[in-house]
Amino acid sequence: MTKLIVLDDTVLGRNILGAFTEEEIVPFESLKFSDGELCVELKAPVRGDDVVLVSSICEPVNENLVKVLIALDAIKRASPKSITLITPYLGYSRQDRRVKAWQPISARLIADLLQTAGINRIITCDLHASQIEGFYSIPIDNIPILQILGNRWRKARPNDFDLSKLVVVSPDAGGVTRARAFMNEAKIPNMAAIFKYREKPNEVATMQVIGDVKGKTVIIIDDIVDTGGTLVKSSSELKKLGAEKVYVYCTHGVLSGNAIEKITNAESIDKLFITNTIDKTSQIIGDKIGYIDISDILIGLINTFKNGGYISELIKDFLTEE
Amino acid sequence: MTKLIVLDDTVLGRNILGAFTEEEIVPFESLKFSDGELCVELKAPVRGDDVVLVSSICEPVNENLVKVLIALDAIKRASPKSITLITPYLGYSRQDRRVKAWQPISARLIADLLQTAGINRIITCDLHASQIEGFYSIPIDNIPILQILGNRWRKARPNDFDLSKLVVVSPDAGGVTRARAFMNEAKIPNMAAIFKYREKPNEVATMQVIGDVKGKTVIIIDDIVDTGGTLVKSSSELKKLGAEKVYVYCTHGVLSGNAIEKITNAESIDKLFITNTIDKTSQIIGDKIGYIDISDILIGLINTFKNGGYISELIKDFLTEE
Amino acid sequence: MTKLIVLDDTVLGRNILGAFTEEEIVPFESLKFSDGELCVELKAPVRGDDVVLVSSICEPVNENLVKVLIALDAIKRASPKSITLITPYLGYSRQDRRVKAWQPISARLIADLLQTAGINRIITCDLHASQIEGFYSIPIDNIPILQILGNRWRKARPNDFDLSKLVVVSPDAGGVTRARAFMNEAKIPNMAAIFKYREKPNEVATMQVIGDVKGKTVIIIDDIVDTGGTLVKSSSELKKLGAEKVYVYCTHGVLSGNAIEKITNAESIDKLFITNTIDKTSQIIGDKIGYIDISDILIGLINTFKNGGYISELIKDFLTEE
Amino acid sequence: MTKLIVLDDTVLGRNILGAFTEEEIVPFESLKFSDGELCVELKAPVRGDDVVLVSSICEPVNENLVKVLIALDAIKRASPKSITLITPYLGYSRQDRRVKAWQPISARLIADLLQTAGINRIITCDLHASQIEGFYSIPIDNIPILQILGNRWRKARPNDFDLSKLVVVSPDAGGVTRARAFMNEAKIPNMAAIFKYREKPNEVATMQVIGDVKGKTVIIIDDIVDTGGTLVKSSSELKKLGAEKVYVYCTHGVLSGNAIEKITNAESIDKLFITNTIDKTSQIIGDKIGYIDISDILIGLINTFKNGGYISELIKDFLTEE
Amino acid sequence: MTKLIVLDDTVLGRNILGAFTEEEIVPFESLKFSDGELCVELKAPVRGDDVVLVSSICEPVNENLVKVLIALDAIKRASPKSITLITPYLGYSRQDRRVKAWQPISARLIADLLQTAGINRIITCDLHASQIEGFYSIPIDNIPILQILGNRWRKARPNDFDLSKLVVVSPDAGGVTRARAFMNEAKIPNMAAIFKYREKPNEVATMQVIGDVKGKTVIIIDDIVDTGGTLVKSSSELKKLGAEKVYVYCTHGVLSGNAIEKITNAESIDKLFITNTIDKTSQIIGDKIGYIDISDILIGLINTFKNGGYISELIKDFLTEE
Amino acid sequence: MTKLIVLDDTVLGRNILGAFTEEEIVPFESLKFSDGELCVELKAPVRGDDVVLVSSICEPVNENLVKVLIALDAIKRASPKSITLITPYLGYSRQDRRVKAWQPISARLIADLLQTAGINRIITCDLHASQIEGFYSIPIDNIPILQILGNRWRKARPNDFDLSKLVVVSPDAGGVTRARAFMNEAKIPNMAAIFKYREKPNEVATMQVIGDVKGKTVIIIDDIVDTGGTLVKSSSELKKLGAEKVYVYCTHGVLSGNAIEKITNAESIDKLFITNTIDKTSQIIGDKIGYIDISDILIGLINTFKNGGYISELIKDFLTEE
Predict the structure, then answer these.
(1) Known catalytic residues of B?
(2) Dist CA C90 CA C57 (whole Å)
(3) Which residues of C touch B176 (CB under 8 A)?
(4) Ramachandran region of residue C168, left (φ > 0), alpha (ψ -120 to 50) or beta?
(5) Record: contact C134-B210, CB cut-off 8 A
(6) What local confidence, expressed as pLDDT, does residue F210 receive?
(7) How far apart are CA A235 and CA A240, in angstroms?
(8) B151 interface with A at CB cutoff 8 Å
């Protein structure tokens, strides 16, 4: 039987829980002792079950990482048939290579830690680099959220919408495949890209725009918006080059530091859409930043496990023409 | 060559660093990005070296645990000959068994995570339960700090000190061996013990004192003082039974929540001595809580590695008669 | 399908076999060559089955340990779906920590050997220390036999039984939780404990009784009775303090050396009850030592596997009010 | 002692062997049976030695991969202290992620196979993607050959060379860091990049040039030249945009199919320089393709091991100002 | 569900595929890039399925080995329930021990590589030495093809066939068990053996015949015919000793080098029968070498998996009396 | 530093200990508790040392196996640099393959257990089958005792000894290589072999002698003499065929059951020589069975480790011409 454990009390978490029966949900108690140590205790058996654990590894990222590891240990010792981790946002994924010698490759370390703690399969959304799949020796699925959003955008728009004014923009070289997937699903004909070179993480780089954005409505497609600095700079650049409107679709709204303020105040950004892989509900005020709920995608995913279906079929369903 | 990396900027850490040459110390940069992710970068090579990494896994315990794991990944990828972790305080050690079904055994999980990240040997101080050694498949050394303090206490006291008024007290059944080790080294002839039964961690239990404490100067010996609740209750009980003075020696001063305040205000406690396995310097005011520096023990330990000696010999040296 | 292999030809083994159909039982041939080497050959296929192997690791303990390991190798190579070891008595559990440096931690070694040989899960009874669960990285269940016996004792006694004269006694500090579990199930209101300190295994220690036993009927609760020396000394001490009767419940009757004779002759012990986790039928004469058959508990356990139930539910069933 | 085994009879291999004494070289016999099975037999002991095995995993790539694995097994069983694989060209590195579901990640597989066969460390040159370092859990060094060539180019050119006409070009987005490293070392001030999008490996993509190449002498910097198709197309594009000369520096000359012919005939390419990480000596005629010997770099590397030095220092030496 | 992947386009492969439904077969694309690197891509999902991969590891043996490993990686990453490799001919099995120091044990290496790549079970035919089973820590089945052929031979012959003229011959000491199995099934009463001593693989040794072959029809039973040299020499020897006819049954027709020509021209061999564990259809002309199709055995095997039966029962079925 | 632990108090053990200094020997205490559990405690540190543990795994074979495993655990936890097991006789080596389905491969199991317990290298003498080397993934050395004895025999015999009357006999097909090695070293020109087929271990088989033994002095060369049954039958057969004298050299004198009596009474055996890989000193009376001390070979071996030499060189030294 498929059993569900949702670690985080978030909008996404509550929506997912609401889609399953009481029998399918494993309640648990999460403790934090006064010295900061965490403990997770399951309140129902999982022996022989296919356990699905849902938790983003987002800020407070180290706290959440350790919590997931401890929860996995508790589950593993309770004799489940298998453990699947659905982690909509997989922290530390940007540390996927060494920029200099004597650095860690933390994304690989996380992969090893999760496998040590007992996961048999992992599912995440819009992974920062596809090579990270190779850091795992267990099956990993990478749900193409932005591609699905492209499909939904197309279905939602009026039939007589003028597509010729639209340009999809990838904010860097690594994101071209991701942007193109959105563009194809959304049936938007034009694409541009920003090409940049960054010395250190979190630092903004010099940028050059390829493709024509003058007089166009631009849709920037990216996986992560963190401090917001790069995004503000990119959109400024696009506006300088004549873009009329700049909309942004980002899967993961890390929005660290004063990112929300920075983006809210940025004139160059007309609107930023993020999904709820990371929960920011309590922090977002006003309508400059829009929230897209992806619960139905994750619920579909868990139902696929439950019914023995294939994820590839599920994704195909999300990407149908009509 | 033996190379030293000290992760924490504490009194203990600075003292240790001061005992070694610049060539023996590997400088490093510790970064925390605005989204909370950590990174550690070594600033000197360790290829072919026996690396000693010093870091307590204390509050903020999850932050520190992840920091140690990431540092280990960076070291491991830099081709050292071996990695020894000296962790004066090893967090999560009290989660060494399941009180109920469906709980984790976090102390074992920590053991697996550290080994996955690359340690070849681990050294810690006054481990909460000696069975935890069995959670590791690599060599582990457990430095008997309290036993060494017992030895030092004896050497420091006046020759004509009246020992007959002293009683060493173990605050629970599990600590008898530890208290006896102190007692033997200190040459204190009398011992008593408090016997208690505790339902949950951090909760105080019913207690009964075995042995005579009336009119005596009591020295409580324990490994960890956390919230301070049990300690205050134990010392109250001892004073009610006629103890004249209650001194406490604890290796690890976790002192979470308002423990410092609670202990400072407790009339039943005459003085608490803790060591600096956990750094509390900035928080301790007044002289109710005394600080014992164990840097020399750890420096001795690292020198033992450097010179190819044996830890057992070193400990014997610390426990000599004269 | 659940398939059963019972290695030992004991009362317990025969009772278990009697509860299952021929199709569910895998016959086997156990050979001992003239040079002492063992071999086990299965006489029916187990491909795709959930195999349950039942065998205590008791005296001759090394012979039995190797036999279990070899049987596991034979099973593992026959393509089962999973292997569960039910070992009512898990030898070497008392070697769970190092008393001195340079000793083994044999209980961890046994855990590693069994996992190397192929077990996926292990079930045992009244484990010597709960930390041993952490020596395993696979699921482990520890059946609380004494707790179940407490429940049965209550149901079996006359309704008007005078409980006020009864005291449950834990013979050492480590056994308090175990004794309390019995006490709670038996609805016996009073408890006492013996507090002792032992230098080496098998050696008797100095002891002190906490709690009132004068004029009482004492029930000592312990996990293992080995040479019997400690037990005789404890009961003598209790009688000296005025206990009227001393009954003993021990899960595992190791009864090594001349233990049976020693206990039979001990005036301080009125009766010792052991279970058949270790088979001593041929050696026990007279009625000083009583035998409690726990076959029904293990049969219930195996039926739980067979029917996809939960062990936690099963244990709850054994501990019902009525 | 450091012992050297060079599997391939190539220019590079012979040069390396020539730099070491007979005692440091382990002779071996490489057999190929008539059914195609390979065998490698060492002709001298390596017990207790730090063995360095040198072999590119290049065409015939599967043959060479299996040969390296078998050689590793022979070495591992001969009790060496450690095994370091120096593989100037590490085949299968371009299969570092899944373009579609249900594909392998062969670069990770290769990492696992080499580690299974017994390597403790791996050194390679100009790795295709730096994330591949994360596929290994052992130390890996990635020698920046092109950066060293940039340094050498600068030292070799006349002092009054006119640098203003030069432009370094990265042929794709992933190569920018690599090209920049060359540019910085060569002290060439200008850079351009070709931006392209490729559906499948070996297939040429649409391309757009960023930066000014009109009237310039272009130096394309790339890690691998395989079929030559992309290179010919890129250089054509550059010439169309007004580039006067197009020179190419590529670390690895895979040159599969009719690549040599294609490049030799391409008017858009003025000269291609490759290194001898892959041996093509027998196939290259004429002077359209130039050969750069990197033996001295690898010899320096092995001497670093021999003398207990640091690779980072060695590389710094290769990149000195003077 | 059981899903089938047949890597090789051979008679055996096509026959197996013909026995299963489209839904049970996983189509795949096998690519070979121009630089010799292989890639395998599945064209249907296998999530949750018991995948059976069929492929001989025969010439080109290194190419096929790597192809199988890459296919396993692709399958493993697609979340199957289990992977069973059916490899009718398992190359490198003759390298099962070190004849001299400093050689590899390639058959063990292959076992480790296959397990690293992800197989959970392996099935092969007439393994060269039964000890090779011990190189695997996963279940391995060794289908006794020659024994089954002996059974079929008996059922196919006329009832009044004169068996007294027949002698089964083992061509070396290692093959006696194999020959006896054939003899018993075929109900042939007489056996002889050739005893020889071979210095190196592929080299012919001195030989001595035990048992009477004069005037007899000899049936040589062997597992592998490689270069054919030994076989020609053995049959010559038998004819010299008066054997009237020499027939040969060999499971695996490696037939390397000019083996086919050599055997076709050998007057001492009347006919050689090989099975199609290795596909030689395109190379065999004339009727000196006969081909025995074993598809039905492998199809039976896969159906056994499908239906949850036991291989032991299947083999018993193939060896029935009638 | 090389440190020596000799587990067994045997002639061989005492001889080896006598060759090393007190500083090189690690004393230990071996305990057997009254319930049969073993414990081993080292009495000196081994931190950083290359530990050599010497112990045969012979009868009582299971007791000795567990003792070795526990000793390894104690050593491993004491932080040695490496652990080498010298086990002159490696029990369970004859269980190296499955004769029928559903049996174990105990020799592989032993390999896994020893590696789990912590050995890094293993050295044994005249291994039963050379394929067993492939059961280990660590380096293994197989000392050719009989070959060395052949060399010694030659050097010891008078110069004018008549070799033409001598025949070396292998008692079965598997021993031919072993016998030939003895023969070559002893410079004995003639060889014969007994060819037999055995259904089960310990059961005698039908036998046929190849080669001429009439009027000859026969030297049987074998690795193990266990129950002695086969040996008596073989020698009878040889005497029946006219052998004048039958001498036997066996490395390992298992001599189980009444083997000593059986051999002593056997008229067909003139004398049996065994080595002291297994200690039988207390059981052997009279001079029918001769004892060859191999201490000097093992001492040479350990000195080789100590001095960083090569075992291959050592063996070559033992096999010199003069």
Answers:
(1) 196
(2) 5
(3) 173, 197
(4) beta
(5) no
(6) 80
(7) 8
(8) no
Least Cα distance to E319 among E55, E103, E143 occurs for E143
For the residues of B202-253, what is the DSSP string, one character each?
A: T---EEEEES--TTPEEEEEEEEESSSHHHHHHHHHHHHTT-SEEEEEEEEE
- Reduce the secondary structure of A235-301 to three states and give it as a string: HHHHHHCCCCEEEEEEEEECCCCCHHHHHHHCCCCCEEEEECCCCCCCCCCCCCEEEECCHHHHHHH
Q: Is A221 helix (H, G, I), strand (E, B) or coil?
A: strand
- Please give the radius of gyration of chain D, using alpha carbons only, rounded to the nearest integer: 20
On the 0-12 / 13-18 / 19+ scale of CB atoms within 10 A, B44 is middle
What predicted TM-score, i.e. pTM, was given to this entire model?
0.95
pLDDT tens-digit readout, E58-109: 999 999 999 999 999 999 999 999 999 999 999 999 999 998 889 999 999 9
Contact D48 F308 (CB under 8 A): yes
Closest Cα of chain C to A65: distance in Å?
20
Q: Are the beta carbons of F89 and F226 closer than 8 angstroms?
A: no
Low-confidence ranges of chain B (pLDDT < 50): 198-201
| Amino acid A313: pLDDT | 86
Instruction: Give chain B's radius of gyration (CA, Å).
Output: 20
Q: How far apart are CA F198 and CA F200, in angstroms?
A: 6
Of E105, E107, E133, the CB nearest to F97: E133
Residue A156 has pLDDT above 60, yes or no: yes
F305 touches E: beta carbon within 8 Å: no
> Which 177-206 residues of chain B touch chain C by CB within 8 A?
177, 180, 193, 195, 197
Q: How far apart are CA B2 and CA B24, in angstroms?
A: 7
Is the pLDDT assigned to residue D63 strictly greater than 70? yes
Helix (H) or strand (E) holding F154: helix F145-156
Q: Nearest by CB to A311, from E47, E76, E77: name it.
A: E47
CA distance C161 to chain F (A): 38
Taking the C-alpha atoms of residue B12 and residue B23, their distance in angstroms, rounded to an integer, is 20
Q: How far apart are CA A146 and CA A179, in angstroms?
A: 8
pLDDT at B200: 40
The one-letter amino acid code at B305 reads F
Copy the structure tokens of residue F321. Answer: 């011409």
**The token pair that represents E303 in the structure block:** 């159906």
- CA E42 to the chain's CA centroid: 27
Q: Do E139 and C48 touch (CB under 8 A)?
A: no
For tokens 């086919």, the residue is: E260
Q: What is the ipTM of this complex?
A: 0.95
**pLDDT higher than threshold 60 for residue F189:** yes
- The answer to whether C81 and C11 are in contact (CB under 8 A) is no
Kindly state the DSSP code that residue B80 receives in the 8-state scheme: -
Record the tokens describing residue C95, joined without a space.
């070697």
pLDDT per residue as tens, chain C (322 positions): 899 999 989 999 999 999 999 999 999 999 999 999 999 999 999 999 999 999 999 999 999 999 999 999 999 999 999 999 999 999 999 999 998 889 999 999 999 999 999 999 999 999 999 999 999 999 999 999 999 999 999 999 988 888 999 999 999 877 888 998 899 899 998 888 887 754 434 555 677 888 889 999 999 999 999 999 999 999 999 999 999 999 999 999 999 999 999 999 999 999 999 999 999 878 877 789 999 999 999 999 999 989 988 888 888 889 887 6
* Catalytic entry in E196, E216, E233, E239: E196
Question: Nearest-CA neighbor of D75 among D65, D61, D85?
Answer: D85
The reply to whether D36 touches chain B by the CB within 8 Å rule is no
C-alpha distance from residue C150 to each of A38, A118, C144, C219, C321 (Å):
34, 36, 10, 11, 12
Which of chain B's residues have a Cβ under 8 Å away from the Cβ of F116? none
Residues of C designated as active site:
196
